[in-house]
Amino acid sequence: MSFSVPANLEAEIDELITHYPVKRSASLMLLHALQEHFGHISPEATQWVAKKLGLQPINVHELVTFYPMFRQSAPGKHQIKVCRTLSCALGGSHKLHEHFCTKLGLDPHAHGLQTTKDGKFSVEFVECLAGCGMAPVMMCNEDFFEGVSEKKADEILGGCK
Ligand code: FES
């Protein structure tokens, strides 16, 4: 599979690298930029970043697999992210995640990114979304929701076109 980064994005990335005294220090920023553009970090993107920074692909792969904000497969059109950190875990986020997964025909016990067959929805657990006082907290794409009940979850799903 061919992989190419658009010229304007590569120019931005080249400029970004100049902000760091050591090229390698730009690794996370490059991964964020590519994920924002492509939706996930493919093995080809990992190799591209490694080459760009003069690293071995394993040096980049270990970042992609360590940080939960990086996705290795394409998310759905509507990305549901449920916080699983302490306040939300105590406030019912596991039940909320299970509710979404059951409604969408996904595995309620899988913590990683899952996408429906039609590509419309993806569900994943994420770490603290900085709304700890109003657990459970979640996001759907860029929209933020606090104190989400199962009824509210159904409304959020219903609002996704
Ligand atoms: S613990 Fe869920 S938002 Fe902070």
Describe the main β-sheet briefly: 5 strands, mixed
Order of helices and strands: HHHHEHHEEEEH
Mean pLDDT: 95
CATH superfamily of the largest domain: Glutaredoxin
By oligomeric state, this entry counts as: single chain
What's the arrangement of strands in the largest beta sheet? 2-3-1-4-5
How would you concisely characterize the structure shown here?
The protein has 7 helices and 5 strands; from the N terminus they run ααααβααββββα. Helix 1 runs antiparallel to helix 2 (27-38), helix 2 (27-38) packs antiparallel against helix 3 (43-53) and helix 3 packs across helix 4.
Protein described:
The chain is of the alpha+beta class. The chain folds into two domains: 60 residues, Arc Repressor Mutant, subunit A, CATH 1.10.10.1590; 81 residues, Glutaredoxin (3-Layer(aba) Sandwich). Helices cover 43% and strands 12% of the residues. The chain contains seven helices and five strands; from the N terminus they run ααααβααββββα. A five-stranded mixed beta sheet has the order 2-3-1-4-5, with helices on one face. Strand 2 and strand 3 form a beta hairpin. Helix 1 runs antiparallel to helix 2, helix 2 packs antiparallel against helix 3 and helix 3 packs across helix 4. It is elongated, with a radius of gyration of 18 Å. The model has no long low-confidence stretch (mean pLDDT 95). FE2/S2 (inorganic) cluster (FES) binds next to helix 5.
